Amino acid sequence: MHSDPTTRFSSRVADYERYRPSYPREVTALAARECGVTAASAVADIGCGPGFLARLFLDAGCEVFGVEPNAQMRQAGERMMGAYARFHSVAGRAEATGLADGSVDLIAAGQAFHWFEPEAARAEFRRILKPGGWVMLVWNERRPEPGFMQEYERTIAQYAPETSRIDRETIAGFFRGAAWHETRFPNAQQLDKAGLRGRVASSSYAPQTGTAESGALMQALDTLFERYRREGEVTVRYDTRVFCGSWR
């Protein structure tokens, strides 16, 4: 397992592209309603990856700078957003984006803030934001409902222990001096057996493919899938959690 967050997904790009969930369109509706984002707005998607969040803002007409430190992930984003004239791929990271001072109206980070160094990222975000600009931190967090989802959580805990990526204390410290709030939206994926395997394999906490640990995890997922599948699929349910704040 790579300890460097900028390289730990290099071997997981294909699964990440294909099997990670996107975000509901309510995220961009919230950005319009709460943050004043319009088609004229410039958005920096930090930790852009393949561009699930970036594509929502592009579809809303925004200009998007996809900042991504991992070369393989950045190339995936360039493939996914190649048809969008208003997408710009940027080799950079949260603490050193390479963007100009006061150049963006909104900074968004999907499934990424937990990899940032908060104080350095905070300083960089304040540098590149226009006066009155906003930050949106977004995560898809699995919903531990009774049945499949609870057993899914137990399986992950047994073979690939993880902790929640969302730390409200860290978020509060990051937004200190700013008005911020959290909004949640329901989200879900329908996955066949290969999709369930790929969804887990895309995660940083999962054992590397080809190891004995990965084999045991995949076997357990197959058993779980057969128990709960309906018409060849299972449903993975999430809460999309969005933290919005502005230092104006």
- Poorly predicted runs of 5 or more residues: none
**CATH C-level label of the domain at 10-142 and 164-188 and 239-246:** Alpha Beta
The percent of residues in helical segments reads: 25-40%
Tell me the span between the first and last alpha carbons: 40 Å
Q: Compute the CA-based radius of gyration.
A: 18 Å
Strand content: 25-35%
Mean pLDDT: 93
**Element order, helices and strands?**
HHEHEHEEHEHHEHHE
Q: What's the name of the CATH homologous superfamily of the domain at 10-142 and 164-188 and 239-246?
A: Vaccinia Virus protein VP39
Strand order of the largest sheet: 3-2-1-4-5-7-6
**What would you say the CATH architecture of the domain at 10-142 and 164-188 and 239-246 is?**
3-Layer(aba) Sandwich
Count, helices: 9
And the CATH topology of the domain at 10-142 and 164-188 and 239-246?
A: Rossmann fold
Shape by Cα distribution: globular
Oligomer: single chain
The SS-based structural class is alpha/beta
